[in-house]
């Protein structure tokens, strides 16, 4: 079984155990999230799947994504005024974001647990999570920029 099939199967199992009905649309949206790994917006997902589900609206996609988020399968990423991007939750990872085209790429780095411990220690807070994003120019945009010079 391919990695993405295993992920899809366990995601569907999670939905079943939380009592969420698995409709063909939900199945397709999950599959798309797992396969693309591109952190799509609801609109991207809608455009990719509208040929399969002519009656589906962007609002339906949003509603399904909210269901997935509540089941802990999907993480919603918000960046300023831009539309939310959705990320299938696998392992903990960080994001690097292209400032020109908005592409988001995953990278792994040993969790910054020490930062959480230090923050808790110096502030007395109970720490739940942290958020770190790295910004730059992706290789594609960098290449385009050099060609223009
Ligand atoms: Zn880029
Ligand atoms: Zn990600």
TrEMBL record:
Keywords noted in UniProt: Cytoplasm, DNA-binding, Iron, Manganese, Metal-binding, Repressor, Transcription, Transcription regulation, Zinc
Pfam families attached to this UniProt entry: FUR (PF01475)
Keyword DNA-binding attached: yes
Swiss-Prot/TrEMBL cofactor(s): Zn(2+); Mn(2+); Fe(2+)
Residue numbers binding Fe cation: 130
Main location class: cytoplasm
Compartment(s) where it occurs, according to its Swiss-Prot or TrEMBL record: Cytoplasm
Ligand binding (Zn(2+)): 98, 101, 138, 141
Gene Ontology BP term (one): regulation of secondary metabolite biosynthetic process
A single GO molecular function term of this UniProt record: zinc ion binding
Assigned GO CC terms: cytoplasm
Domain of life where this protein originates: Bacteria
Binding note for cofactor: Binds 1 zinc ion per subunit. Binds 1 Mn(2+) or Fe(2+) ion per subunit.
Functional description taken from the UniProt entry: Manganese-dependent repressor that controls a regulon of oxidative stress resistance and iron-storage proteins. May act as a hydrogen peroxide and organic hydroperoxide sensor.
PANTHER family from the UniProt entry: PEROXIDE-RESPONSIVE REPRESSOR PERR, ZINC UPTAKE REGULATION PROTEIN
Family as reported in the entry's similarity comment: Belongs to the Fur family.
Record protein name field: Transcriptional repressor
The organism of origin for this protein: Rummeliibacillus stabekisii
Taxonomic classification: Bacteria, Bacillati, Bacillota, Bacilli, Bacillales
